[in-house]
Structures are given as structure tokens and as C-alpha cells.
Amino acid sequence: MKAISVEKIVQQFNLEVLAGGESLKRKITMNKVHRPGLEFIGFFDFSPTERVQVLGQTEITYLKQLDVDERKLRIGNIVNYHPPCFIVTRDQQELTYLEQYCSEENIPLLRTKEHTNDFIARVDAYLAKSLAREIAVPGVCLNVFGIGILLRGESGIGKSETAYTLIGRGHRLVADDIVVLRKLSHRTILGTHNEMNKEFLALRSVGLLNIVRVYGSKSFQDETRIALDIELTKWEKDELNNELELRTKYTNYMGVEIPHIKIQLQPGRDVAGLIEAAANSWYLKQQGYSAAEDFINRTENYTDK
After folding, report:
1. Burial grade of 61 (CB within 10 A; 0-12, 13-18, 19 or more)
2. CATH node for 133-295
3. 3-state DSSP helix/strand/coil % of the chain, to nearest 5
4. CA distance 78 to 44
5. Closest CA to 231 of 278, 263, 198, 203
6. Fewer CB within a 10 Å sphere, N or C end of the chain?
7. What is the Cα–Cα distance from 160 to 204, expressed in whole angstroms?
8. What average pLDDT does the structure give for the chain?
9. All residues at 6 or more sequence positions from 103 whose CB lies less than 8 Å from its CB, including other chains
10. 214-223, 234-243, 294-303: least confidently modelled range
């Protein structure tokens, strides 16, 4: 199971450490934070106590209204489960009682000036990426017309060369050679680099190119949601290609189905142009339009006349 330390959260969001500073190496394994509510009255049947606990103005105001013994009981209900850390939002003050309990149990108590909902949204997004299940696949990842594309094929078939042509046309490189795929949800796969290959494109007979140095910062982006899986293959003369096939084919990555297209290579074919066409076609399908369906409907209507 993937995990990150509380210290990473402190650094990423510039949090103030109020207590439990010696325990910042504690691990976070869940990708959503939690605002305790029913836990304060002892109801833990479905409580995600292993998540980061965020205390907003509502929670802190409630605790301050309790007498000392009652407050100790309510806080103890949660502290005894040893969550990774507590984070207090909106720069709330007078937290001596919380500092005491967290110090006694070696649980980090952190504070941010951000508003609760905004902060939770940011942390959830960060944890979703940091803790996402991931795999590495050979290929090239690009953003074409704002659409994430995973370009695959046998070694030496021309993936990087095709990518270079697309970058020259104003599209963006995400990763070359090795693409890291992260599963953010049951419908979303994110493509990114592995840091080592960031901004680099390897061209046979030429060598490594730093795309940002050649084309500027607009030629590269850190990540993109994968919308199309395009496979470059050798030309097969006798293979039947049905451009009017209505049923979409898919490739499965970690349980997420990504539309799959196969492009056969042949001298003179504008492969970069075909990838642009595939991206445009995918976009139109998301708007509810299929050129193949439109053509078939026209044909049927013409035949009926």
C-alpha cells in the first residue's frame, strides 16, 4: 500500500506545527481527509479514523463550548484511535487543550490559515495523486488539442518521431519512453512522467532533446488525463479496416477502460495528422456526435427515397 508522511503534507501546504512535531514521520495511507462529527459523541461504527482529521470552525467552536471534563472525553474519543494527524483550519487560536492531548499521544497537530472547504479540496486532490495506484508502461504521452493521448507501439516504430512532429505543431509532451499511469478513480487515468524523463524526448539517430529548451515551456505539461490509447502498428496489406465500425474498442488499465485506436504505418502517411483527427473525433463523440452514425443514417435515408 502506498503511503506518504505527515511531513510531506506539512511541507506541501506550509502548515504550522503546534504539537507532535517528533511524529511527523507518521504515515498517511487514505486519500481523503475527514471532518469528525458523530465521533465526538462516541459513534465510530463507520468512522474513517485512519484518515487525516480536519477541524474547522464548527468543530472547534463546539469543543470550546464544553466544560473541561466533557471536552476531554469528546477529544479522547478520537485521539484514542490515533489518526495520522489533526489539522485546524482558519488559523483558529486558543487550542491549548488540543495541543496537550496531541502531545500526550504523539499525534501531530497542525494549523493552516485557509478556509476549511478550500483546504479540504486541495488536500484531497493532492492525496488522490500521491496515493493513487500506478503502473509504468512503455510509450509516449501527449496532450493534443487538450486531449490526453497514450501513444504505444513496438520499439523503433516511430512513436517519439511522431511526438516530435506533434510538438512542432503546437501540442504538448508529457512523457517519452516511460509513461507513469495513475488511477485517480474508476473512470480516470492520469498520465505523467517519472521525473527522470521530464521534458526529454529521445529521437533515434539524433539523441536526446530537451523539448522546453527547443520549443519553450508551452510545449510541455506535467500530466494529463488519458482519453485515448493509440497504438502504432506495421502496415498489414490484407487486414480489413472498417472505418464505419461503430463499436468502440478499449484497453484496460488498472480496471479503467480507455478507448483504443490502431493506426497502421505506411510510407507517406501523415501519422501526426491522423492522431490529430483521432483527437478531434473523440472530442465530437463526447459532444454526442458520431460521423459514422451520421453517414449511416444519411445512407439509409437516401436508400428509402
Report:
1. exposed
2. 3.40.50.300
3. 35, 30, 35
4. 9
5. 263
6. C
7. 8
8. 88
9. 19, 20, 109
10. 234-243
Name the pLDDT band for 31 (thresholds 50, 70, 90): confident
Query: Which grid cell sits at 19?
Result: 504539537
Helix (H, G, I), strand (E, B) or coil at 283: helix
Measured between alpha carbons, how far is residue 109 from residues 54, 95, 112, 249, 283 in Å? 10, 10, 11, 50, 46
The per-residue pLDDT for range 42-87, each reduced to its tens digit, is 666 666 778 899 999 888 888 888 888 888 887 877 877 888 999 9
Rounded to 10 degrees, the C-alpha dihedral 78/79/81/84 comes to 110
**Would the pLDDT of 195 be above 60?**
yes
CATH code that applies to domain 4-130? 3.40.1390.20
Q: What is the rounded CA–CA span in Å between residue 185 and residue 256? A: 8
DSSP per-residue codes, 131-186: T-EEEEEEEEEEEETTEEEEEEESTTSSHHHHHHHHHHTT-EEEEEEEEEEEE-SS
In the chain, residues under CATH classification 3.40.1390.20 are 4-130
| Contact call for residues 53 and 26 (beta carbons, < 8 A) | no
Which of 14-23, 43-52, 108-117, 163-172 shows the lowest mean pLDDT across its residues?
A: 43-52
Pairwise pLDDT comparison (69 vs 219), residue with the higher score: 219
Mean pLDDT of 245-273: 88
Name the residue type at position 128: A
Backbone angles phi and psi of 114, in degrees to 5: -70, 155
Helix (H) or strand (E) holding 210: strand 207-210
Please give the Cα distance from 54 to 89 (Å, whole number): 7
The answer, yes or no, to whether residue 147 has pLDDT greater than 90, is yes
Residue 153: left if φ>0, alpha if ψ -120 to 50, beta else—which one?
Answer: left
Would the pTM of this model clear 0.85, i.e. be above it?
no
